[in-house]
From TrEMBL:
The family this protein is said to belong to: Belongs to the glycosyl hydrolase 63 family.
PANTHER family, per the entry: MANNOSYL-OLIGOSACCHARIDE GLUCOSIDASE
Lineage: Eukaryota, Metazoa, Spiralia, Lophotrochozoa, Mollusca
Membrane keyword on record: no
Top-rank taxon, per record: Eukaryota
Protein name: Uncharacterized protein YMR196W
One Pfam family per UniProt: MGH1-like_GH
Extent of Basic and acidic residues compositional bias: 448-462, 838-865
């Protein structure tokens, strides 16, 4: 570990879900959820990481610490968070637990979190059954809906502090929130990740098996592993007794019928505590997994505490005697953390706003996770699979087994258990030598698929001799990332349960609030993704582990520039970013530009899963290509960010001015194309005053617009820049020439002063010189801005009580059908239907007339299929069936369709990431146009405001999602009454993935303090002057 990072040796890096991930999936069909289920994680070793409850670990996740609980009712220990798989939830995967991140600081010297655990049996089966019965149109059935928190439950607070970088204190405070005395078994666990029996990562692999063993003091253990030697000590129980220390191995059950008593299994603690089986733990008290077993009885309304500490063998800490010194260290670190956090708060913020900001920052820091994925080794593993059923089961059979497993009705040690084991000793990952890997599979004349088949065939004889049925990885996920992608780092995750894998465009948004609390980590994260271990040789940034080759919006340059401006303008950081971003920019041009003379771009879903009438990644009608208004605008946005970077870097070297010229020129080329009318293969609809995607047939000149008002049409607003010209270049003749040529689009005589450039170019469409030092450029004109904002600020369109909707509310009563049939490419309509009365008023408000010649938009009319000889009844039937599947209908909360698994929804809800980019852009327009540029807020109200007031108003709406209303209810928590009525719930806040546009209720992932931590940035904007 780098010396400068020693203070972060330990942190909250333990994942909350390693099961069900691509990294642990060695199935033949890519079914990661079923291959490695929640129940299998009890007894099957992980190959690429670990997970736990209220956990922490070292920077390689080799030494892990977390909690296991038992309420005396469940059939299994609660040692990791439970949730529904992508197949079980009516809106995809979803954690079914209640927990909160309360405190954290940049060096993790103090952390605090809360987990709520029912005193009654955890309703695993009920959660699976109830959600299985529900459709996409139904709300999700949550743990809070089961009633387990109406009366008797436990609050378990985890409090963590560091005496020094490698000396850790941990206290668990157990509150009885019931009406009667209750007993809880609590097991602080220490274990070592299995890095010795296989080699899934060269950086992590160890040849010597580590060990945890008991010391002379019966409540102390010694840990010897590759990162050092440590002692861990467990305090006496609240009754004064020493806890029982139990040991086993962190290794998988290697055979369903193996019953050797000396084979101590990963799931031994479940058997020891719940079944009372003492032979399942090692009587010699050593192994690679250890737990201290406490049993506490707590009176109603009271609490008790369990304590432990860990320190290097060669140090002499103060905390290991517990008592007053232990208390004083925890209190001092808590006080210091509070002071650190308070410095981040604005004095004008209310106490409730400060509470929200504190938990947002805490969640952001808690979401750091160790992530290990070497694609080459993952492919090379060739694991042997004991596949009695697995993904051959029907959904109903799989759900039934999952219910039984969760309820402890399936014995993993029995022959009848369903297993997708990791690797046997004879055929484990560690036995696959990579020494001759390149010679074996690197052959320029052979495809990746052929390489893999050769490698697999080579192993087939050895595998068959083991007597197990094996499958090759037919889906070959991420095969194009085989030879370079080696991730083994601490990464900011979107949500450590629902998204325990990085998403590159999410991470760019994480870095905005992160730059306030830890600028150094922020810069390292952004550079990490531009390094050779991440960035593809072609220049593509990896998207996420399910498909690294997918395309996300190019926001990485924007984040780099933002962090540069927000962290003392580290010019060397900016230079490193710029040089690597050039590769990514070139990839975009080569891979996503649509062939032809213009500058149109595609890109696929571009982060907004179901926003279009078509699946933009894989569902374009045959015979057509999709030109995307957002994809093209994102490239204009990207060009401007690199232009800004090049100007900054020209202070180091004037040669960067050549790059500045290139990107400014490219921006103008894209702007010209994007602003062309739709009938000229642009995106601007002169009648609607909005930007739309267009379908372009391969074999005709026809252009079909996809006329839905959504965030797709707002992305062009983001392509703007308010630039302060560095003094060192403001009089540079080369710079003045570049400005003149780019803006005038000719090569006439050079202007030699900013004043002359300003005079010459004042009539241009996309830019304005403000003064000697400031320059503004944007993709859209001032008139277009006015026209688009008339839609954005209209309450029946985009403006909701809680921010800007992702899709216009107009489509609630006027669903938009596809203009071309998805499967056949048959044309259904022109893409336009008759304007509603609201739309006609909008055109009148904009000073535009509604043309009679325009194709009628009648939502109820069923157009006859062109080029189809079938009768009208057949057309109607096929149209109705198709429309039901793909029609765009406003859905303010969770998705009501199954596109992209129904896990997220971009057809109405509030997304903080896109709201943030919109408001940041409006601030730039305000700096350029000033107070004289006025818009109505809301549209039609007669109340005119400037753009800074618009920013403050929308920011206040977004912040209100998290703040209690006059009745004490936070909109984010929906109708769950405890948050408003019970003292122990009132201060707690969840940070969801997106938000119901009409109520503010949180939807999707519940701990997405990745980009939802942006609420802190909206707080700043709410109070901006």
């Amino acid at each position: 570990m780098e010396a400068g990072n020693l203070e972060k040796f330990f942190g909250p890096y333990l994942s909350e879900r390693q099961w069900g991930t691509v990294r642990e999936d060695y199935s033949h069909n890519g079914d990661c959820w079923r291959f490695f289920s929640h129940d299998k994680s009890r007894y099957t070793v992980y190959l690429h990481g670990e997970d736990g409850l209220l956990g922490w670990c070292d920077y390689k996740s080799k030494l892990c610490v977390s909690l296991a609980l038992w309420n005396g009712k469940d059939k299994i220990l609660k040692e990791r968070l439970f949730g529904l798989t992508g197949l079980q939830g009516n809106h995809g995967e979803d954690v079914k637990e209640v927990y909160y991140y309360l405190d954290n600081v940049a060096d993790h010297s103090y952390m605090r979190a809360l987990y709520r655990y029912p005193q009654s049996a955890f309703p695993y089966k009920k959660l699976i059954r109830k959600n299985k019965e529900r459709k996409h149109t139904d709300p999700e059935y949550e743990l809070t809906d089961t009633g387990v928190f109406d009366h008797d439950y436990w609050d378990i607070y985890m409090e963590f502090a560091k005496e020094d970088p490698k000396t850790c204190l941990c206290r668990y405070i157990i509150h009885n929130r019931g009406k009667n005395p209750a007993t809880l078994h609590i097991l602080p666990q220490i274990w070592l990740r299995d890095t010795w029996s296989h080699c899934s990562c060269d950086s992590c692999h160890t040849t010597t098996k580590p060990n945890i063993k008991i010391c002379n003091e019966k409540n102390q253990v010694r840990i010897d592993y590759s990162e050092g030697s440590f002692f861990a000590k467990f305090d006496n129980s609240p009754t004064g007794h020493l806890p029982d220390l139990i040991f086993t191995e962190n290794e998988a059950i290697t055979s369903a019928d193996k019953s050797d008593e000396e084979d101590y299994k990963k799931d031994a603690f479940h058997q020891f505590v719940i079944a009372g089986e003492t032979k399942c733990v090692n009587p010699h008290q050593n192994g690679t997994k250890c737990a201290a077993v406490y049993c506490v009885t707590v009176n109603p309304g009271s609490s008790k505490q369990i304590q432990m500490c860990l320190w290097p063998v060669k140090s002499s800490p103060k905390c290991n005697n517990f008592g007053l010194q232990f208390d004083s260290i925890l209190k001092a670190k808590a006080t210091q953390a509070k002071k650190t956090c308070s410095k981040l708060m604005h004095p004008s913020w209310s106490e409730e706003e400060k509470n929200v900001a504190q938990q947002a920052y805490a969640g952001l820091l808690w979401s750091k996770q160790f992530y290990c994925y070497d694609v080459q080794k993952w492919f090379k593993a060739n694991c042997s699979i004991d596949w009695d059923s697995g993904s051959e089961l029907s959904d109903e059979e799989a759900d039934d087994i999952e219910e039984k497993e969760c309820c402890g009705l399936v014995d993993p040690h029995s022959k009848e258990s369903i297993q997708a084991e990791s690797c046997s000793d004879e055929n484990s990952l560690c036995k696959v030598s990579d020494g001759n890997l390149k010679q074996e599979i690197v052959d320029s004349s052979t495809s990746s698929d052929e390489h893999l088949e050769k490698s697999e065939n080579k192993e087939s004889g050895r595998r068959s001799s083991i007597g197990k049925q094996t499958y090759k990885i037919e889906h070959k996920r991420n095969k194009d990332w085989l030879f370079h992608l080696h991730n083994c780092d601490i990464i900011s995750m979107p949500d450590k349960w629902e998204f325990p894998w990085y998403a590159t465009w999410d991470l760019a948004f994480h870095m905005i609030p992160f730059s306030t609390i830890d600028p150094l980590f922020t810069k390292k994260q952004l550079l990490l993704f531009l390094s050779d271990n991440y960035l593809h040789p072609s220049g593509q940034l990896p998207a996420y582990e399910f498909d690294f080759s997918d395309t996300n919006p190019p926001v990485h340059a924007w984040a780099c520039l933002h962090v540069y401006k927000n962290s003392k303008k580290d010019i060397h950081f900016l230079k490193k970013c710029f040089q690597r971003l050039l590769l990514n920019y070139t990839w975009w041009i080569n891979a996503k530009k649509i062939p032809g003379p213009g500058h149109l771009y595609g890109g696929g879903f571009l982060g907004m899963d179901n926003i279009s009438v078509y699946n933009r990644s894989h569902g374009i009608p045959p015979g057509y290509m999709l030109a995307q208004a957002d994809g093209t605008a994102w490239m204009a946005f990207y060009s401007l960010k690199l232009f800004e970077m090049a100007l900054e870097l020209s202070q180091l070297d004037n040669d960067y001015l050549d790059m500045a010229e290139r990107f400014l020129n490219y921006f103008f080329l894209i702007a010209d194309t994007a602003n062309s009318p739709i009938n000229q293969a642009g995106f601007w609809d002169e009648e609607d005053k909005f930007f739309y995607d267009i379908l372009l047939p391969y074999h005709s000149d026809e252009i079909i617009p996809l006329c839905t008002r959504s965030l797709v049409g707002l992305v062009p607003l983001f392509a703007c820049a308010f630039i302060t010209i560095p003094k060192s270049i403001s009089t540079n003749p080369r710079f003045l020439s570049i400005m003149h040529k780019a803006m005038s689009k000719n090569k006439l005589s050079q202007q030699n002063t900013i004043k002359k450039v300003k005079e010459y170019t004042s009539h241009q469409k996309y830019h304005v010189m403000l003064n000697q030092e400031q320059f503004f450029v944007s993709l859209i004109s001032k008139n277009q801005l006015q026209q688009i904002l008339a839609w954005v600020l209209k309450e029946s369109e985009f403006l909701s009580p809680f921010g800007i909707r992702s899709l216009s509310k107009h489509y609630e009563n006027h669903p938009y059908p596809p203009p071309v049939e998805t499967d056949t490419g048959h044309k259904l309509n022109s893409g336009k239907m008759e304007c509603s009365s609201d739309e006609q008023k909008m055109h009148a408000h904009m000073g535009e007339s509604h043309h009679d010649s325009k194709v009628e938009r009648n939502p109820g009319e069923k157009p006859v299929l062109e080029d189809d000889d079938s009768d009208i009844e057949s057309n109607d039937s096929r149209y109705d069936e198709m429309v039901k599947e793909v029609t765009v209908k406003y859905a303010p909360g969770e998705s009501i369709c199954g596109m992209f698994g129904g896990n997220s929804n971009w057809r109405g809800p509030i997304w903080l990431c896109m709201n943030y980019l919109l408001l940041e852009s409006l601030e730039s327009y305000y700096y350029a146009y000033g107070d004289n540029f006025q818009v109505e807020l809301p549209t039609g109200s007669g109340k005119s405001v400037n753009l800074q007031q618009v920013v403050r108003d929308i920011s206040e709406r977004i912040v209100s999602i998290f703040i209690p209303d006059k009745d004490g209810k936070r909109p984010v928590h929906g109708g769950f009454r405890q948050y408003a009525e019970e003292e122990s719930w009132r201060h707690l806040v969840l940070f969801y993935e997106f938000f119901h546009a009409e109520t503010g209720r949180g939807c999707g992932a519940s701990h997405q303090t990745g980009w939802t931590a942006l609420v802190v940035e909206f707080l700043k904007k709410k109070y901006s002057q």
